[in-house]
């Protein structure tokens, strides 16, 4: 750290597609870890990582859930892997209205990878721990923070305070109904 300047920790899950066997242990581990109560169920449709599988072409690609997008985008990527083309949305991490991926199956609310941040008993995210083929590996590095950048932990505290005040004002049920409606728009 230079001259007292602040740093942030960048967390990275490196994906080595050539090692992925499509076993889906990562999906199981993520869904169990995020079940309520924790580890009470195994349901890959609740996982924040999904494995794109093309068994004919022998291709397996683990993709972690990214941000929620309110509307389907009109920009598309076309992937060519080993000379074979893959559909434009196949590897997209977004929770998007045009498909069912990365949505909580009961509520329809978007799912996003949180890097298992509230797990203190493991130094690695659950999907990485579950992957026995080293297709997923975890790394951390420090980077200097931009001027005026708010540390992630402070943002979380701000969000928690805002959420608690909304619950106090409107009640959990009303709030969840509103989130559900927003996720459908
Ligand atoms: S890091 Fe945690 S939340 Fe993200 S996909 Fe892996 S197990 Fe799920
Ligand atoms: S646990 Fe590892 S090898 Fe199995 S599907 Fe997930 S990333 Fe691939």
Automatic annotation (TrEMBL):
Keywords: 4Fe-4S, Iron, Iron-sulfur, Metal-binding, Repeat. GO terms for molecular function: 4 iron, 4 sulfur cluster binding; metal ion binding. InterPro entries: 4Fe4S_Fe-S-bd, FDH_Electron_Transfer_Unit. The keyword 4Fe-4S applies. One of its GO terms (cellular component) is cell envelope. Signal peptide: none annotated. It is found in: Cell envelope. Residues 11-41 form the 4Fe-4S ferredoxin-type domain. This is Fe-S-cluster-containing dehydrogenase component. It comes from Desulfobacula phenolica.
